[in-house]
Amino acid sequence: MDGVSMVLREIEYLRQKLNQIAIEKGVSNSKVIRLSKQLDEVLNEYQKMITKE
């Protein structure tokens, strides 16, 4: 599996986890905020990867 595919899988996993926890605990929960920041970082990484190609 190439790097882009791995990052896309991680993005999808983080999105699902973020949505699940946001529904259970609310959008202002610290876990939701932490996951949101993590997702932002991975999305930025993905953006850098695809603009290099």
Automatic annotation (TrEMBL):
It comes from the Bacteria. It holds the Pfam family SpoOE-like. InterPro entries: HLH_DNA-bd_sf (IPR036638), Spo0E-like (IPR018540), Spo0E-like_sf (IPR037208). SUPFAM superfamilies: BAS1536-like. Gene3D superfamilies: Helix-loop-helix DNA-binding domain. This is Spo0E like sporulation regulatory protein. It comes from Sporomusa silvacetica DSM 10669.
